[in-house]
Specification:
This protein is an alpha/beta fold and 495 residues long. Among the domains are: 74 residues, Arc Repressor Mutant, subunit A, CATH 1.10.10; 240 residues, Aspartate Aminotransferase, domain 2, CATH 3.40.640. 40% of the residues lie in helices and 13% in strands. The strands form 3 sheets. It has an 8-stranded mixed β-sheet with strand order 3-10-9-8-7-4-5-6, sandwiched between helices. Helix 6 packs across helix 13 and helix 7 crosses helix 13. It is globular and about 75 Å long.
Length: 495
């Protein structure tokens, strides 16, 4: 936790005896949430006061007859939300400045011109994830209990698994589960033999760059676009060919006329990164026809297509491909959690997948086996699809919250562009803000803003900003918007 949080943490403070907390294994509410809710209530009712030291998780778990993981989850949620603070070697304490107190205090100041120093300190409640970080899932809403239960089952059965060197392409039941999911949910035409499990989407990009490209080959890239892909292709010795992005996706005709000899097109058709638009049906057909005619590969990066909030998820570009031109890429980092480090590629043929395996074998031999076992069982037992449905509802709600906050407090300075999908929204300044000063002010406010120009390659585009919303509660987004207001007011051209 940040050292600058305003709290009292006396090293010799005795642990509080938490009488009255009870949990029921018959309740539909997860055990850790039962503990969390009761602790939060005690803090808000002042039965637990600022500076009080909570019991060690091991002791507390023993008292409640639950696993230590349950208590750790409850504590972690309260730490994330700012009700508790932790200090290595001392313990876990009730924070001096509670998030509810700060939020209520701010509601009294409708002008939002000033904030006490203590409030600024609490912007960084989470040390690693701050508003409005892009592409980060809601880690506090992940199905930890189901994941832990899955992990426990897998660990108990480890002896029946081969834990030596395994298939470089990935654990077979996981590849089957991925193929089955993609056929139903994304209309991807594939079998498990075509699926390659990789250690994160960036490794997938690196592998495809090395596998399909030779030194000097040209690659179409959306402009603006994902910088990680650019890095991978340059590392492979390719020449980057920027393709401007229109309201209905990449300008395919521009690419055909300017770079007809390109060997690969990197596309995010379902939800263009970072602008958020969708590649139109007509452009998909044109791209596939051109690729088939010119023997050009298409790398379809389907990084967050699960999160569409109106209607059904869009069908993949790969499902429309009848010539075997499209390599499909997906990841579990956005759907589950980034630390899992598992993603996948779908190759057009089994023969290509086997050849790619030879290259992958020289890089890391295989992706982590325990994680593959856990993920395979997590999908098999239905937890994966239930989690996606849960996150769609949550993210839809959070997107609406951020839209309302921006319109209410920043509507005078930005026009909003929010598609019914994805994990961030785009705001375009109306000319009243000095964007260079705004960048500097954003850094001082210690929040994250994705500047669209930072993702551009060549073509001139407006200096908009991207704001992620999926990882943040209403309270955290409120804090972030207040910080944005301060950054804006400090950057007005009239000053």
């Amino acid at each position: 936790m940040p050292d600058n949080l305003n709290c009292r943490m006396p090293k010799q403070s005795p642990e509080i005896n938490l009488a009255g907390i009870k949990v029921s294994k018959k309740s539909a509410t997860p055990l850790y949430m039962q503990v969390y809710e009761q602790l939060r209530k005690m803090i808000m009712e002042k039965r637990l006061r600022a500076g009080d030291r909570l019991p060690a998780s091991r002791n507390f778990a023993k008292d409640l007859h639950v696993s230590r993981i349950i208590i750790s989850q409850a504590y972690e949620q309260l730490l994330i939300e700012g009700y508790l603070v932790a200090k290595t070697g001392s313990g876990t304490f009730v924070a001096d400045q509670l998030p509810d107190d700060l939020l209520n205090a701010r509601r009294k100041d409708h002008s939002m011109q000033q904030r006490p120093t203590a409030e600024k300190k609490n912007i960084g409640i989470e040390s690693s994830i701050v508003p409005f970080q892009l592409g980060t899932p809601s880690l506090d809403s992940f199905s930890y209990q189901k994941w832990f239960e899955t992990g426990n089952t897998v660990l108990k059965q480890l002896k029946k698994f081969h834990l030596g060197y395994a298939d470089t392409l990935g654990y077979w039941p996981l590849r089957e589960a991925i193929a089955s999911y993609l056929r139903v949910s994304r209309a991807v035409m594939c079998e498990a033999e075509q699926v390659v499990v990789v250690t994160g989407s960036q490794q997938g990009l690196n592998l495809i760059g090395e596998f399909l490209l030779k030194n000097g080959d040209s690659v179409w890239m959306e402009d603006p676009g994902y910088p990680g892909a650019k890095t991978s292709f340059i590392h492979a010795g390719a020449k980057i060919c920027p393709i401007p992005v229109e309201n209905d996706g990449a300008d395919i005709e521009y690419g055909i006329k300017k770079f007809p000899g390109a060997k690969l097109a990197y596309i995010t058709p379902s939800h263009q990164f970072p602008l958020g638009c969708t590649l139109s049906h007509a452009k998909r057909i044109r791209l596939l026809e051109w690729a088939s005619k010119k023997n050009m590969w298409i790398l379809e990066d389907d990084y967050d297509s699960e999160f569409r909030y109106e209607g059904s998820p869009l069908a993949s570009l790969q499902g429309m491909d009848h010539a075997g031109c499209v390599v499909y890429s997906g990841t579990f980092s956005k759907v589950l959690f980034p630390g899992l480090r598992l993603a996948y590629l779908v190759l057009p043929t089994v023969e290509m997948a086997n050849r790619l395996a030879l290259m992958k074998e020289n890089i890391d031999r295989q992706s982590p086996m325990i994680e593959q076992l856990m993920l395979s069982k997590f999908i098999e037992e239905g937890h994966f699809l239930r989690h996606i449905r849960k996150m769609r509802l949550l993210y839809s709600e959070r997107q609406k919250i951020l839209i309302d906050l921006i319109n209410l407090y920043l509507g005078e300075y930005f026009s909003l562009n929010a598609f019914p999908s994805g994990m961030h929204v785009i705001c375009w300044p109306n000319g009243k803000i000095d964007m260079q000063r705004f960048r500097e002010s954003v850094k001082r406010q210690k929040i994250f803003v994705g500047f669209i120009k930072d993702y551009s390659l060549q073509h001139k585009i407006p200096d908009g900003i991207a704001l992620g919303f999926t990882a943040f509660s209403k309270y955290k987004m409120k804090l972030g918007v207040e910080s944005l207001v301060l950054a804006v007011k400090d950057s007005l051209k009239s000053k």
